[in-house]
Amino acid sequence: MQKNDELILKIEDMGVDGAGIGKSDGMTFFVKDAVIGDVVRAKIIKLKKTYGYARLMELLEASADRVEPNCPYYRQCGGCQIQALSYEKQLEFKENKVRNNLERIGGFTKIPMEPIVGMDEPYHYRNKAQFPVGTDKEGHIVTGFYAGRTHTIIPNRDCALGLPVNREILDIVIDFMEKYHISAYDEKTGKGLVRHVLIRCGFSSQEKMVCLIINGKSLPHGEKLVEALRKIDGMTSVSLNCNTERTNVILGHKTIVLWGQEYITDQIGDISYEISPVSFYQVNPVQTEKLYGLALEYADLHGEETVWDLYCGIGTISLFLAQKAKQVYGVEIIPQAIENAKRNAVKNGIENAEFFVGKSEEVLPEFYEKEAAAGRKAYADVIVVDPPRKGCDEKLLDTIVKMAPDRVVYVSCDSATLARDLKILCEQGYELKRVRAVDQFCHTVHTEAVCCLHRVNM
Ligand code: SAH
Predict the structure, then answer these.
(1) Where does S-adenosyl-L-methionine bind (predicted)?
(2) Does 413 qualify as catalytic in the annotation?
(3) What is the mean pLDDT of residues 126-135?
(4) For residue 53, what are the domain limits?
């Protein structure tokens, strides 16, 4: 068996990144774009000792769970890895992914898993998109999505996960750039001006934000762009974000408002939120409401509790919880997000929420030490964490264990790091009581999960 050989594979499983898995001669092969139940002809592109990667050449027998993808670019684009799989099976895949990680990485045996929360209409669900801007071989300005694992732009202004208004906005931005000879940024040379177009839309409010991320400090003829964008219904904020670093990180530190205000407002449940371009805000508002509802249910609040919400962003979960708790403290690393959080509390008439800027793994341990030095024990009934994919720092987990809240609610967007962190907590006095996946990212391999841990007497 060697590279470029062709094999017939029956796809029997799917890997964490969504590739189909088939076996041949005791070797395991990963085939991108093949789904469970397919029989495919595939060409070996990489061979290791016990496994390899193969390219899908021909679909010999289509799986009963295969569906016609909604997007013509799905095989090239890196965004939706499992769009060819029926939505029902996607949900099964995600629930299994969470369960497997808890078993394999977390070492859990009895997992109190509840059925995954799926979406009724799993398309056009994203309230945010960041489109890279570039130049094609003919010198035209293009925008779209990066091809999987590369930075080659596939021109596409109609992503099936995004909103139809994205196309209108992108047409305006690209026409403007061509008309006024505004250059696109080139990652290879570090030259050129416009790097990305960030679009955000409040689903309840219908307010829209456009932010151009530029490799510079100003946008020539910016007033002309504003004039055109203002015609779009609900346009609320047009801004520039300056990022002159040669980096893959999209956003820079400085935002300049070109027109309107810096933020848009949106509602989830009974709470309304201000969101600025650099702040994190869940991308699927329909599912977010269900996710926060579960976090609230798992927190089991009755009005007397002290709650910490770590990695709080613009205070979304904090304010949801504050309605049912005595006092909520939120911690978040991005200063603008904390400004949003503070204003969001005021806007919603919530007086029992306080916010701190800093790293969770520094703010909470420092608070604990300060209280200890004053002869007090830092107290919490419930601690909620909602970290980015890399999960929680061990220093934070140690402090949580020391504070010994009755309940820990863990909201996670990566079940591998979730499992790693739950293992640490469950070795030190906690028991996993409830787990539920919520599909926030339909057609991708990613899923959100929320867990509830109770303190047990040791
Ligand atoms: N709970 C919020 C945000 C969750 S996303 C919501 O549902 O909207 C994770 C957040 O953690 C982001 O806002 C990110 O800026 C923040 N963050 C990342 N690393 C952090 C750290 N070490 N300490 C505190 N916040 C951090």
Answers:
(1) 282, 311, 332, 386
(2) yes
(3) 97
(4) 6-66
Percentage of the chain surpassing pLDDT 70?
100
From CA 315, how far away is CA 297, in angstroms rounded?
A: 18
Cα of 342 from ligand 1 centre, angstroms: 15
- The mean pLDDT value for 331-356 works out to 96
* 396 Cβ below 6 A of ligand 1: no
CA dist., res. 46 & res. 53, Å (int) = 5
pTM: 0.93
Judge if 248 and 395 occupy the same domain.
Answer: no
Q: Is the pLDDT of residue 182 over 90?
A: yes
- Summarize pLDDT for 195-212 with one digit per residue, the tens: 999 999 999 999 999 999
Distance 310 CA to ligand 1 centre (A): 7
**Is 388 near ligand 1, meaning CB less than 6 Å away?**
yes
Q: Is residue 72 part of a domain?
A: no
Instruction: Give the Å distance between the CA of 114 and the centre of ligand 1.
Output: 25
Known binding residues:
282, 311, 332, 386
Distance in angstroms (rounded) separating the CA atoms of residues 165 and 162: 8
Residue from 316, 332, 400 to probe ligand 1 pocket by mutation (most atoms less than 8 Å from CB): 332
Measured from the CB, is residue 340 less than 6 Å from ligand 1?
Answer: no
What does the DSSP 8-state code read for residue 296? H
Q: Is residue 111 part of a domain?
A: yes
DSSP code of 185? P
Residue 86 lies in a domain: no
Q: 195 by DSSP, 3-state: which?
A: strand
Whether 458 has a pLDDT exceeding 70, the answer reads no
Length reported for the chain: 458
The pair of three-digit structure tokens given for residue 421, joined into one six-digit string: 């962190």
Question: What is the 388 CA–ligand 1 centroid distance (Å)?
Answer: 6
Span 9-23, average pLDDT: 95
How far is residue 166 from each of residues 140, 163, 211, 273, 352, measured CA to CA in Å?
Answer: 19, 6, 12, 22, 38
> 114 and 137: one domain?
no
443 pLDDT exceeds 90? yes
Catalytic residue from among 312, 413, 451, 452: 413
Ligand 1 atom at minimum distance from 279 CA: 13
pLDDT tens figures, 64-88: 999 999 898 988 887 899 999 999 9
